[in-house]
Amino acid sequence: MSLFLGFGGILVSTVLGTLIVAAIWPVQNAARSPWVLRVALGLGLGLFVTSVLFVGWSRVTPRPGWPTFLNELTLVAGGAFALARRYRQRSAPAASIVRAPWSHGAVLALGAIAAAAIPALLATGRALQAEPLGGWDAWAIWNLHARFLFRAGQAWPELLNAPAMAWTHADYPLLLPGSIARLWTYTGGETVNAPAIVAAVLALGTLLIVATTLWRQRGPLVAALAALTLLATPFFVTFALNQHADIPLGYFFASTLALLILAGDRADAARCRCLAGLMAAGAAWTKNEGLLFAAATALVVLADATIRRTPRAALGFLVGLLGGFVPVLAFKFGQTPGNDIVSGELVHRLSQLLEPERYRVIAAAAWRDFGRFGEWHIVPFAALAILLSPARIRTAARAVRYLVVILGLMLAGYAAIYLLTPWNLQEHLDSSLVRLLLQLWPATLLLWGLLVSDRLASPAWQAQAPTRVSLAVALALAVGSALTVWSYARTQLPLGEFAAVRTAGATYHFVPKEGWHSIEQAGQERWVWSRQSATLVVDLDSAVQPRAFTFRLRSLEARNVTVRLDGREIWRGDVGTAWTPVTLPFPALSSGPHDLTFELPQSGVREGTSPGARVLGLAITPPRQVHR
Amino acid sequence: MTNRSTLWLKAAYGFAAAVLLGIAAVNLAAPLWRQPPVSSYLPAPDAASATERRLADLHAELDRRSLPGTIGYKTDGPAGMAPDAPEAVQAYFLAQYALAPRVLDRDLAAQRYCVQLALPAGRPSAIPAGWRLLAQCGDGVLLLERQP
Fold first, then answer.
1. With a CB-CB cutoff of 8 Å, which residues 16-45 of chain B face chain A?
2. Of A366, A421, B112, B129, which residue is least crowded by CB atoms under 10 Å?
3. 3-state class of B43 per DSSP?
4. CB-based contacts of A62: which residues, under 8 Å, 6+ apart?
């Protein structure tokens, strides 16, 4: 139920965000922006707007849920009404709307993206299973702030700003805490799904922004290659639901830059730029690096408008940026302590800018992390670089140059932050640089897609209509990927389980319960030592008939061992220092957990004389079913 | 450009795109073999979930007693463990996360009440001088009150 309500909350924010995007988007060019792109933009913009509403109401009333929800419904209804009127009055005749034809290449590209999404989804799910409450920043910052918003009523700013809480960075912006607390309010409790849903929405949005923008600008093959490269970035996939703010921030970076690219040099681009300004403000509402991004983007847009003497080109961006910045400024100047990096003794730290050693340390860390931040098994940079087109780089459109300069300014800004950091520089770099690079990765792929060779952007097969063969190949790619992933995943033993034995009727899961040391492994060999007596849980997914299993047992000294299943003795005998095969007869068992206890009346033997030496009782290997 | 060189270029780009797809396939599989699934028969293995479980009784006890918004926090670790040792800092952050919106203050001077956690989990926790036990919340977790 909580999952359903959580998705309901996301649906409302997405509809609201998409309506705002559609309302601002130029009507004449509606057909040029695929609905997927508008929804992808709406995913983040909706969270931006609804989190601002929730945070605002949380300062006014201890129960901000209902007023926020009513506000949202009112905005959705008003937006839908205004949009309908606008389109009715100004829409072009239907015949003039040119729809992108589905092509052979488009179908194959979609098939490839679907095939890549399957292992990526499984990896994302596993990462969430391993850390359902998220990583360090999730519980030390974002979800902690969400708990204060949700649990403390109107008192949350005072509590969060207490001196004892300085370590949690109360000045960090509130897109994630506000969105999570809003979903908790709607679901009526602190479901662990809420932070994961918010994280998933923005990771999906990032992928959609990159793919749909490039699909629009360069065609399906380039879009698919960029989407595949993003999905094949293990750090992006496993970090997506880790509930840090870096991927959400990367979403807003990519959205802003995508909108500036789509705006291009068109005369009616002011609305597109207005949306870009809003998204840049969304970045500032997500994480402090977003402030740097908003400033860098505004600087580039203003400089370009000044050089070209076209102030109207910057006006749309500034309107969106300043409108979106109202809550950011209210938060920053109204209710937070100063930021630890830029406040306090910043003037004294300016001398750090003159320390060559700091530059060397930053350069060394950058060199180390550029190639490894994605946690790739094979770094894709060389393959990506080969596909770039020198001709396109030379003749890049102005919007593409924007992107290069903004990314360059971001890197320079990050370097300046490291130069001025009050913390230990090496530790600061070690704990954050890979995440900063991940923030910029989707936007970098967007840039790559704009600069790859035209040969990839417009091969002839992309113009052909889809055939049965292309549909079959796309389907085969997706189904083949699903089957491969499923059959591989079945062979993997879950973390913490000692063994899983599949029989005709059921799977026996052997899980160490109490009295065991950690599971050990060397090559294919696997074993676990007990301290003395110890219990394995045998968990069954369905009822089973009697079966026998062979374990190999050993000890450091001869020991008499009794094995009991649910308290009933099933074997008794001596175990020596060599591995001894022992066949244990399992009776018929019901589904569910059963205790398999290995009893040693004497204490274990210390494995050595060092202070950390373990006391070892009995070692067992994974069981094998005895086939009679 | 001749037809022949165009063909070569096409082939080169096609090959490079295929290499990129191959690299993507390997990188897509990498997280799956690096991170096996988590057993559904075991509690969530991460430190945050473990702390939530460990401090659940204390959380209920604090609610039951309606203790004030800020309380003291200390750890009872092995001899030589510095207050800013990584495991001590992590335990403090996680305890703060579990017990929010109460503020845990490591400066005990002004605090009447204090939460004490044995580190690592599983160790017994001793009552420090100057404090009396209000509640024992299991697994080395104590709620203390300053002695008058």
1. 16-17, 19-21, 23-42, 44-45
2. B129
3. coil
4. A153, A154
Rounded to whole angstroms, how far apart are CA atoms A398 and A401?
A: 5
> In this complex, which of B26, B45, B70 lies closest to A130 when CB atoms are compared?
B45
Nearest residue to A573 via CA among A562, A565, A584: A562
- DSSP lists the bridge partners of residue A520 as A527
Q: Using pLDDT thresholds of 50, 70 and 90, give the confidence band for residue B16.
A: confident
Nearest to B37 among A148, A456, A494 (CB): A494
pLDDT at B125: 84
A295-319 per-residue burial string, b: 16 or more CB within 10 A, e: under 16: ebbbebbeebbeeeeeeebbbbbbb
Torsion of CA A370, A371, A377, A383, to 10 degrees: 110
- Note which residues in 60-119 of chain B have CB less than 8 A from chain A: 69-70, 90, 93-94, 96-97, 100-101, 103-107
Helices (H), A219-269: 220-231, 234-239, 246-263
Residue contact A139–B93, C-beta within 8 A: yes
DSSP state letters, A392-454? HHHT--HHHHHHHHHHHHHHHHHHHHHHH-SS-HHHHHHHHHHHHHHHHHHHHHHHHHHHB-H
Q: Identify which of A122, A229, A511 has the shortest CB distance to residue B32.
A: A122
Q: List average pLDDT for each run of 10 residues in chain A, which is 628 residues long.
A: 81 95 76 80 97 95 93 93 78 46 80 94 93 94 97 92 91 96 94 94 97 91 94 95 95 96 79 95 97 97 89 90 95 75 71 91 96 95 91 82 94 95 93 96 96 79 75 92 92 89 88 91 91 94 92 94 95 94 94 94 86 89 87
pLDDT at position A462, please? 66
Closest-CA residue of B relative to A388 is B13
Tokens representing A50? Answer: 């609804």
Q: What is the ipTM of this complex?
A: 0.92
Q: Which residues on A lie below 8 Å from B101 (Cβ)? A: 147-148, 151-152, 155-156, 159
Which among A577, A598, A406 is positioned nearest to A515, based on CA atoms?
A598
Residues on chain B touching A539 (C-beta within 8 angstroms): 41
Chain B residues within an 8 Å CB radius of A195: none
Q: Which tens digits make up the pLDDT trace of A87-141?
A: 776 655 444 444 455 777 888 889 999 999 999 999 999 999 999 999 999 999 9
Q: Looking at B46-85, list the stretches that DSSP marks H as alpha helix, in order from N- to C-terminal side.
A: 47-54, 56-65
| Residue A282 near residue A48 (C-beta atoms within 8 A) | yes
The sign of the CA dihedral A248, A250, A253, A259 is negative
Which of A58, A122, A129, A458 is the best residue to mutate to test the B interface, defined by the most B CB atoms within 10 Å of its own CB?
A129
Q: CA angle, corner A376, sides to A370 and A380, nearest 5?
A: 70
- How far apart CA A64 and CA A52 sit, in angstroms, is 12
Contacts A164 to B, Cβ<8 Å: 70, 103-107
Quote the minimal CA–CA distance from A402 to chain B in Å.
27
For residue A274, give the nearest of A330, A303, A313, A329 by alpha carbon: A313
CA R_g for chain B? 27
Of the candidates A148, A238, A511, the beta carbon closest to that of B31 is on A238
The conformation of residue A33, written as its DSSP 8-state character, comes to S
Q: Which two tokens stand for residue A13?
A: 């924010």
Angstrom distance (rounded) from CA A617 to CA B66:
47
Structure tokens at A68: 């926020």
Q: Which residues of A touch B18 (CB under 8 A)?
A: none
> pTM score, two decimals?
0.90
3-state SS assignment for residue A159: helix
What is the interface size between A and B, counted as CB pairs within 8 Å? 180
Count the helix, strand and coil residues of chain B and give each as a percent rounded to the nearest 5: 45, 20, 35
